[in-house]
Design brief:
By secondary structure, the protein is an alpha+beta fold. The protein has 3 domains: 88 residues, Trypsin-like serine proteases (Thrombin, subunit H); 77 residues, Trypsin-like serine proteases (Thrombin, subunit H, Beta Barrel); 144 residues, Yope Regulator, Chain: A, CATH 3.30.1460. 25% of the residues lie in helices and 35% in strands. The chain has 6 helices and 18 strands. The strands form 3 sheets. It has a 6-stranded antiparallel β-barrel with strand order 1-2-3-6-5-4. A 6-stranded antiparallel β-barrel has the order 7-8-9-12-11-10. Strands 13-14-15-16-18-17 form a 6-stranded antiparallel sheet. It is elongated, with a radius of gyration of 22 Å. It starts with a helix and ends with a helix.
């Protein structure tokens, strides 16, 4: 490898990040000075929150700005200086061919800031109506969302998938498709069609801002971000009821505790005394599958909830709690019979 190529790889490696949520991790590439990160939709499928690790080791909050309808692409934003970004308009490869050498940058299986080399196997592989760049570069879980670049450091594509139990069979969303996507999302943000949830990026302690105001900011984002379709009903002071597609939760903030809870299913005395059912609930609570939430019983219902102290609470954590419980209520309404009768 030439010295110029080595320098290019080192420079590009500083422009990638690790993107992580409760379900796994992937890679992203910084595409603007304002904290914009391009990644895969399957890496960042929602508003988040996400943990983002920069090349200098910084751990910061990230929130989802947009997820593509047509491609495995998404935008995440962080609130830090990202002036050393990759300009995917000017650093775009347009003329790549079969056999051309390429490099994949990412975090395969959690091995941070790794580089793999290969060639382009097919520059225009059609899969289910979309076109991809096919490569024999070793692609593993954790590479998703990372850049595939040529020997000049230009963007060939955004790594998206590799077939299981296959070697040398990886695919990337073409760079021009990724560049067009970023440009379009910026246009939608300028027009106000897409809302960037800036409120969730401000990590403000409860000493600086009242905890109820922090929770209020989180609820505002949950109800305003496009695609969530959340309806709000204010109850007593400090209490709010939120509903989405038949799932209903209550959010309260009092006595220095944030509480988010929702009813999953009504039950009778027989279910309350069912030892096997109770054992399964306890097993789920200890498994980590609920993302930090827990099942509990009332006199006539199975509920799920999250509690957090308000000391040090920020809007992103409050949003995460409300969104998580909302999701679990909807999911387990359909699955609770599996515990009772399965």
């Amino acid at each position: 490898m030439s010295d110029a190529a080595k320098d290019m790889i080192r420079a590009r490696t500083k422009q990638i990040v690790l993107v992580q949520d409760a379900k796994g991790l992937g890679t992203g590439v910084i595409v603007g000075p304002d904290g914009w990160i391009l990644t895969n939709k399957h890496v960042a499928p929602s508003v988040g929150p996400f943990r983002v690790v920069l090349s200098d080791g910084q751990n910061v909050h990230g929130v989802g700005v947009h997820q593509s309808v047509h491609h495995d692409l998404a935008i995440v934003k962080v609130d830090v200086d990202t002036s050393g970004f990759m300009d995917i308009e000017s650093d775009l490869a347009e003329d790549y061919v079969v056999g051309e050498e390429v490099w994949a940058l990412g975090h395969p299986r959690g091995c941070r800031f790794s580089v793999a080399r290969g060639i382009i196997s097919n520059p225009h592989r059609e899969i289910e109506t979309n076109y991809y760049v096919q490569t024999d570069v070793s692609i593993n879980p954790g590479n998703s969302g990372g850049p595939l670049v040529d020997t000049s450091g230009r963007l060939v594509g955004i790594v998206t998938l590799a077939y299981a139990n296959s070697q040398g069979l990886g695919f990337a969303v073409p760079g021009h498709t990724a560049s067009d996507y970023v440009r379009e999302v910026r246009r939608l943000v300028r027009r106000g069609v897409v809302k960037v949830p800036e409120e969730l990026l401000a990590k403000t302690s409860s000493e600086e801002k009242a905890s109820q105001e922090i929770v209020r900011s989180a609820i505002d984002v949950l109800t305003e971000v496009g695609g969530t379709h959340v309806e709000e009903e204010k109850l007593d002071e400090g209490y709010t009821r939120l509903s989405r597609k038949g799932s209903e939760i209550e959010v309260s903030c009092s006595n220095e505790v944030l509480s988010v809870r929702g009813q999953v299913s009504k039950i009778g005395p027989g279910e309350r005394g069912n030892a096997e059912f109770l054992s399964k609930l306890l097993e789920l609570n200890g498994s980590g599958d609920l993302g930090g939430a827990s099942f509990y019983l009332t006199e006539d219902a199975v509920c799920v909830g999250v509690t957090r102290p308000t000391t040090g609470l920020d809007a992103l954590e409050a949003f995460w709690a409300a969104d998580l419980v909302m999701h679990l209520v909807g999911d387990w309404k359909k699955r609770i019979n599996e515990l009772l009768f399965g």
